[in-house]
Amino acid sequence: MRRGKYPFIIGFLIVPVALYCTFVVAAYIQTFQLSLSNWSGLGPIEYVGFDNFTKLWHDELFWKSIRHNLFLLILLPIVTIILALVFAFLLNVGGGHKGGTTRGVWGSKIYRVIFFFPQLLALAIVAVIFGRVFGPDKSGMLNGLFPADWKPWLFLADERYAMLCILIVLIWQAVGFYVVLFSAGMGSIPAEIYEAAALDGATRITLFFRITIPLLWNTVQVAWVYLGIAAFDAFALVNIMTVDRGGPNGASSVLSLMIYRNAFEFSQAGYASALGVVLFFLTLTFAALTLRVTRRDSVEA
Amino acid sequence: MVAVAPVMKKRRAKSADDGVLTVGRSKAGTIAANTAGILFSIFMLFPVYWVLNTAFKPANEVLSLEPTLLPKNPTFDNFLSAFKAPLFLENMLNGVIITLLAVAGALVVGFLAALSIARFKFYGRKSIILVILVVQLIPFISLLIPLFLMLQQAKLTNSLIGVSITYLVLILPYTVWTLRGFISGIPRELDEAALIDGCTRAQVFWRIILPLTGPGLVATSVYGFIQAWNEFIIINTLNSPDKQNLMAWLLQNQTTRGTAWGPLMAGAIITSIPVVIFFLIIQRNIATGLTAGAVKG
């Protein structure tokens, strides 16, 4: 397959490369350019150097948002991966060893569908639903379940718990996908390994920590990257669910929300672009760090 | 609070079961495992149940402060009023057109790109793979301003075409990545045999690789469909309400109609139906679709 391959390569790749140059590369260049201006979104562009970044440095809401993104970045992957691993293990191996095969708990096929179900609902719908789940008065779903004489919990309207509510919804939405992903990985671990370990007297917990986790480690790392990215975004939920969008009092603001509001509501396209540059470097740093760890598997081709 | 409960249950279930994994193991562990599974299922299903419950309730039951487990007088009125609501049908049609255009475009462009990455060695191949991976990772939101400006210049804001192209770009990395995995799984010997038998290279691609990539094309188009159908941030920014999709419609109605939860939830159910149908079709193969992209080539 040597002769005349370049016409094919060029012909096949020209459209995607052109699309990326326009929609991603050129767009980022423009974001970087705008981040140095005080452009409102309309009219002439005036460049102001690094003013936006100094302003950022002193912006209290910016630091709050960064803290919230970090909160999600740490907790979302950890909790989701632990839950998903435990349930994938239950579904695949947890039923024990009978009749020569290792199997999942009873009804594991049904569980798999149930756990995956939230994945089918659009984030918009999930956000609307959980807006009701966390309703701060008696008409909210959770508050409705409490005894009538209880003082209703504020949930999203409480500065202390707003981010926690967001975290719970993100986990609820994500966990099923990773149960399925880890199940697929566990399915490819040869049953003989489990059987040999079981014969040697390994308990379920030993099997989980000594066999399943080490053999799945690569998949776990990939999951970590994806969940980390989700933690950097989180725009949809925060935008739809939270009180005053990012409130109360900035208690649930995240970077992506700040970008959107500055760009399309506060007429601060320049400032929004500066925030976009920050988000770009944060994501890239995170991705590079994680890809470096997983390099052997994802980039080698 | 809610998330913690199942975890705690889980822990207890684990420690209660130190039984050895052999034939005839005690039943206690199985019971504990099933209890954990059922509790977690309730946590996962309850909001969905609540949507269904609300959608079938008449308005007076929805607003009543007494929670009822099932609608006392189940009704389809909410679904009818969702269909009759302004822009609902228009937005549904918009969504169908945009999704089909984006997915079809991504399949064609993505298949060809995947083909050249999987089957040819050339200068810059590795950097293309790296770019595909990285682009997938960056939140799209920081590109919204330039995107808007670009499409405005091309007179493609407030048009279905502009959004379709944007969605195509959005789902392309996954498409290329997954199809590349599938194509790499097809033995090169097949290509070579066909070339020896007198096929041209184009015929090899068309007659051998394309049909064998079938399952990959299904997996990627379902994923692309879900992404494009469920997107609302971009379309909400680029287009006015009459050129938006059902997701944007839902949000619009959530803010403007306030307490009309019945029709809103009915709308949410109608919006989710295509995705659920696709899911049921490929349900057995999700795992395959998810891992296929990981095949090394």
From TrEMBL, chain A:
Its main location: membrane. GO terms for biological process: transmembrane transport. One of its GO terms (cellular component) is plasma membrane. It holds the Pfam family BPD_transp_1. It is a multi-pass membrane protein. Residues 66-290 form the ABC transmembrane type-1 domain. It comes from the Bacteria. Keywords: Cell membrane, Membrane, Transmembrane, Transmembrane helix, Transport. Belongs to the binding-protein-dependent transport system permease family. It comes from Paractinoplanes atraurantiacus. It is found in: Cell membrane. The chain crosses the membrane at residues 7-29, 70-93, 113-134, 161-184, 223-240, 270-291. This is N-acetylglucosamine transport system permease protein. CDD domains: TM_PBP2.
From TrEMBL, chain B:
GO terms for biological process: transmembrane transport. Coiled coil: none annotated. CDD domains: TM_PBP2. The chain crosses the membrane at residues 31-52, 92-115, 127-149, 161-183, 204-226, 260-282. It is found in: Cell membrane. GO terms for cellular component: plasma membrane. Keywords: Cell membrane, Membrane, Transmembrane, Transmembrane helix, Transport. It is a multi-pass membrane protein. The keyword DNA-binding does not apply. Residues 92-282 form the ABC transmembrane type-1 domain. The keyword Acetylation does not apply. PANTHER family: INNER MEMBRANE ABC TRANSPORTER PERMEASE PROTEIN YCJP, MALTOSE TRANSPORT SYSTEM PERMEASE-RELATED. Belongs to the binding-protein-dependent transport system permease family. This is N,N'-diacetylchitobiose transport system permease protein. It comes from Paractinoplanes atraurantiacus.
